[in-house]
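Q: I have 207 residues here and want to know how they pack in 3D. Can you give me a structure?
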Amino acid sequence: MSDVFVDGASHGLGSTLKTWGELLETLDAELSARGVLLAAVRFDGVEQPAFREPSVTARALTTVQRVEVETSTPDALLRQSLAEAAEGIAQIADDVARVSALFRGNDPTAANQGLARLLGDLHTFAALVTTLRGPLGIAVERLTIDGVSPDEQIERLGAWLESLIAAQTSQDWLTVADILEYDIEAVLRAWQTRLETLTHEPQDRSL
């Protein structure tokens, strides 16, 4: 049986638990009763960011000598998630600006390679918006920007991407650059600002 520590304190558990998944289920129940959530997990000092994934929950506790978990309040965990999301969106926006500049330059090959990578990031952004509305449960009105709801924003993003691909196909590099800079980057920066604002708003604003 692994040695288990919760927020640095030794936590005595029975020896009947065989996998991390069984231990996780036990910890979730205990922590929920205390009004906190499991926020981070380390196995023998190694971070386990995907600690709820089946590939991790199936791991036998006999293969782990020390399990360390950290807890957080739901509010703090939500704020952390919002801050991380804002950072991720800022990085995507920076990449959009960089690729836009490439299309305004004299190296279309590098620009198109950058755009190919960027399209995957933009799909990640769309998935993030869904997560904010779904699992994180943030009210739609709090994610509405300039009167445009999240669903409408994603629809606009889809339309911009279609126009972008059409311009790329016709080798209209300036139009590609304009869509990236004036449409896509602009909405990403607005989302970055909105999430940063939500991160610092009081809890009684119903995050």
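Q: Anything worth noting?
A: Residues 203-207 have pLDDT under 50 and may be disordered. Residues 76-205 form one domain.
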